[in-house]
């Protein structure tokens, strides 16, 4: 007993190691969070470059810069990289940094596994990206890998599937770690219903991850055996069904959508109260709404496949269940607005991104509601309307929330204030260009432009050109973000421990930058 | 007559043309030329025809497509109204409740009444929306009592049409010249929307489509008919259309099906019943003659 106490007295000796070993062998949640976040940022630029290849080809009709097969590789890889490489690791990185500090824990519950779950990612993505150089190129059947088309993939196929397995293992380990941390390491007095919403949304997200990543692993493994071991899960010639793959895939895929947005809800629910100088409106209803969304996410999957020929009863069920999601999502939006209502608002960069999130995510929600209406979805399905919809919820949705989080907590992480003026520039450029980029895609989609085509007929020219201009504008604006981050890491005005006047929560009781080891003695929460 | 796609349009039906080199020999111009073309486009000097800007779903030419359009506009306006209210509140708050204007934060953070209200009201709106949606869906799914059945089969990358019980079948492939795709020749109005053999159908008849595929999943889509159904190898899906007005209606493959996915349009030509019957008769005798191996002679005798 006394030995244990003696050990904790020497915590000051445990600074970070020096050099590359610090990062390779680290079990520190802050280091691992940083690794995740920079990895995510790198993948954001890789995926962004692929998006620019797509948009450049679509700048005018005709084939200009790439072969249609390479174009298909770009659309497929862009999605895989952005989903599994940029958005998901960013959220795990934020969870690593913030969950222990928010619940008053010294670190994540399973620090060595934490190291492993990060370090799988660079290997997984190296494997995935190297498939671009294999005979036949990278996967080109879309990120959804629908058979039989995906079975036509060349040498890349087993590599891509192995990469997906690795990314899945990484996600599941990250999720287990987050759940273990939240359930075991909360400070005394930090009851579940006192946890910050970011922690709540991540807790629910972690369960979604554990539930569905193995489903994806199963689906792609069945593809693998269909291709190499003579099984016919997805081939009618042997009694299988290609549509079964789609059911399995979307049983993973729809919760995956919420995996990418629930932590964003959590972030926004932290930021808006701070800059409104008001407590979050309807805390408990926010928790219940998040849980409802998570539950509903398991029973709506087939709305991604209304055109595959389902029985009428199935279509009606999935239409109604999908429409229901609008209710808890609406509750969240109304709660955010009620939080702002009669507050005392200031508009620092995190708040600007958070407000843009609420507005633009809601636009994505509206198009989502339209897509839920099955007869209309028959027209929208697989068009640019869908592309516009999910980019609205993912870019000014998930990505804006991640960026808002970065600005909001960067002073806590680095000990320096970011450059507010440049941050505002970044905000306005991003917000304007993201709309120039994605809003016209609603129009071309409604007018009949299918997704995943490298060339289009002439009535779509103008909007595609506007969209491409927006893409380059948005892409270059993110270089400004990179500059702001680097500048903030290197120096700048010293941040106070509280950083923001209206901030509440345990992380703001720590000095800025947060010490390498924090809350070695757990705080008492009243 | 030169067919840009490079396929023999007179190839006997039933034989699958080899399309593996569909785009293989695209004459890709050197990068500098392409760069110049990009700049040309930027300066507004495009060498291509411009079709009208389209910003909305077409209303279409079938009772179903009009129902779908009305449904689409209904949800759209509901979203607009909700959007105006929600965004109005946000902007009101942004303008009025700012610290720089001396706003002092009130500390309210709960109201069960409000929570119940904004749960129940959206729910009721959704119930209201679901009624017409379900009604239209039930109609869309009812392909019974059809007057004509056409089997549509997807291939990488073209369509095959069979008029069931009529002894008429043929392939339908992109006829836009490769040179236009490769930006050597100008693009016409129907760029990527023209085929060698159109699917000819009668107006005013209930046409039942059976969709299947011989290789990967495709999706046969004609926006004006509000018909989109996946063509799945080994399975048959059905849907239907009753076209009101004669005309040419163009669509595309909607499901990613590989390299030529963007290059397999659908062109439907709706003719009055008597003209359709005449067309069907001609097509049938031409195909029977061709099947008999005497295509040239019949063509000469019938003066074609």
Short description:
Chain A has 526 residues and is mostly helical. Chain A is 67% helix and 0% strand.
Order of helices and strands of chain B: HHHEEEHEEEEEEEHH
Shape of chain A: globular
Biggest chain contact: A-B, 98 and 105 residues
Q: Tell me the major beta sheet of chain B.
A: 5 strands, mixed
- Compute the number of helices of chain B: 6
Structural class of chain A: mainly alpha
Placed side by side, the strands forming the largest sheet of chain B appear as: 3-2-1-5-8
Q: Determine the mean pLDDT of chain B.
A: 83
Proportion in β-strands of chain B: 15-25%
Multimeric status of the protein: heterodimer
Uncertain spans of chain B: 1-50
**Overall helicity of chain A:** 55-70%
Helix percentage of chain B = 25-40%
Kindly report how far apart the N and C termini of chain A lie: 28 Å
Would you report the number of β strands of chain A?
A: 0
How many strands appear in the DSSP assignment of chain B? 10
Task: Report the uncertain regions of chain A.
Answer: 1-11
Strand content of chain A: under 5%
Protein model, in words:
The complex is a heterodimer of chains A (526) and B (304). Chain A has 526 residues and is mainly alpha-helical. Chain A has helices spanning 2-8, 20-25, 29-57, 68-103, 111-130, 156-184, 197-228, 242-259, 262-276, 283-296, 312-324, 326-340, 349-372, 374-380, 384-414, 420-446, 461-490. Residues 1-11 of chain A have low confidence and may be disordered. With 304 residues, chain B is an alpha+beta fold. Chain B contains six helices and ten strands, in the order H-H-H-E-E-E-H-E-E-E-E-E-E-E-H-H. In chain B, the strands form two sheets. Chain B has a five-stranded mixed β-sheet with strand order 3-2-1-5-8. In chain B, a hairpin with a 2-residue loop joins strand 1 (148-155) and strand 2 (158-163). In chain B, helix 2 (63-96) packs antiparallel against helix 3 (112-141) and helix 5 (273-291) packs across helix 6 (295-301). The chains are: A mainly alpha (526), B alpha+beta (304). Chains A and B meet through helix 4, helix 11, helix 12, helix 13 and helix 14 of A and helix 1, helix 2, helix 3, strand 7 and strand 9 of B.
